[in-house]
Amino acid sequence: MAPYEPEQDTSETGEPRVGRRKAARYVVPIAVAGVAAATIGLVPALATSGDPDLPKISAQQLIEKIAASDTQQLSGNVKISTDLGLPSVGGLAGGFAGGGGSGGDGGEQGKGSAADPKSKLMELASGTHTLRVAADGPDKQKVSVLEDAAEYSLIHNGDDVWAYDSASNEAYHAKDAGAGAGEHRGKGADKGAKGSDEVPATPKDFAEQALKAVDDTTSVKVDGTAQVAGRDAYRLVVKPKQSGSTIGQITVAVDAETGTPLKFTLTPASGGAAVVDAGFTKVDFGKPAASTFDFTPPKGAKVTEADDAERGAHLKGKDQGGKAFKEDAAGGLDGLNVIGKGWNSVAELKLPGGKGLPTAGSGDVPPDAQKLLDSLGDRVSGKFGTGTVFSTRLINALVTDDGKVYVGAVTKDALVKAASR
Predict the structure, then answer these.
(1) Cβ proximity of 13 and 76 under 8 Å
(2) pLDDT surpassing 50 at residue 55
(3) CA distances in angstroms from 361 to 365, 368, 397, listed in the order given
(4) pLDDT, tens digit, 9 for 90 and up, residues 339-358
């Protein structure tokens, strides 16, 4: 059996995926960026109980098995970790999305609910989280994010989507699956309650995004077997053939019986711990109890209706000029240009207003703040003029002084070269 990269420790979780459609528009639309978009990374090594002896299968056959997988019912735990080398962005992301933190005053006051999925689930973009998931067909899903002394749950049951944050005793309600928390798309209960184009949160979500990048710039092979969450699995390894990518390889453990991805690991070309590691630690493909998807707000809980929350966010944005900013930003992203192909794709777009980062010279920021900003990035120059490159373990972004942005899962040198084309 061919050697394979050690699995990273996963030990608890479930399967969800909720988020805000618009939040995803700020994620780089690169071929493999579904992986990057995210912005999700996971934990250390998952112990396996030996390599099961399974029938031989080709990479093409295994990919077809994943595509044909139509798991309608399941429950279990998922541990998901993201290590982009950045601090937690949950609260910050929520602020940009228009959501609020604990103790918000509700939609009519222009403040979001602490239970609003738009902001809450963005916390999965960094650190390590344990999820408990359950699904029963396309109309019933539940995902719970387990915290030290609290729990956040997102429940989709028919036309109702409920989110509840036990820490603040706040609930968020949307009357239909498309109104805020999770519009179902595609077949298979394993897709969970989700919006279209949000941050991936389960092994299958990640695997689907990664396999979209498979083309003649990609090496794909079956590299051994493993056991994940007590299930026999094949190990599919996907690597870029091109030089210049920050992605080393992607390993997907695929359930031998159902074709459901059980674990996803993305390691950077620079080596070290995985950038993203998401895997089941426990999974059951039986039908969950019907009561799993029932929800009634606890006594005394503050309930925010999705329509009220959106109305409050609109008023807040109007008062602060936020609406105009969001419209400009959306327009800029809609007109983005993609440079290159495959794993070396780079997204090019313009900042709202056509201006670069504020500088001390322009009087927009204090000198001390300028020093801090400069310390976070590297100054570069090329045919594009001058700008600053900001780096994570997976994504590099170049912001030029004239207001253009180049982003990709490529090295700094490859990014500067693309911008200087």
Answers:
(1) yes
(2) yes
(3) 8, 12, 22
(4) 998 899 999 998 876 666 66
For 278-314, what is each residue's pLDDT tens digit?
999 999 999 999 999 999 999 999 999 987 656 555 4
C-alpha triplet 170, 172, 176: angle, nearest 5° = 165
User: In residues, how long is the chain?
Assistant: 421
User: How far is the C-alpha of 106 from the C-alpha of 316, rounded, in Å?
Assistant: 12
State phi, psi for 16 to the nearest 5 degrees: -135, -165
CA distance 11 to 349: 39
* pTM as predicted: 0.72
Q: Distance between CA atoms of 99 and 134, rounded to whole angstroms?
A: 26
Structural domains of the chain ordered from first start = 21-306 (2.50.20.10), 339-419 (no CATH)
Can you read off the two tokens belonging to residue 386? 């001058």
Residue 197 Cα distances to 99, 208, 214, 263, 288, angstroms? 18, 12, 19, 20, 27
* The pair of three-digit structure tokens given for residue 85, joined into one six-digit string: 């080398």
Provide the 3-class DSSP secondary structure of residue 209. Answer: helix
CB atoms within 10 A of CB 1: 12
Can you point out the beta strands (E) in 72-116?
73-82
Report whether 275 contacts 265 (CB < 8 A): no
Pairing of strands 385-391, 377-382: antiparallel
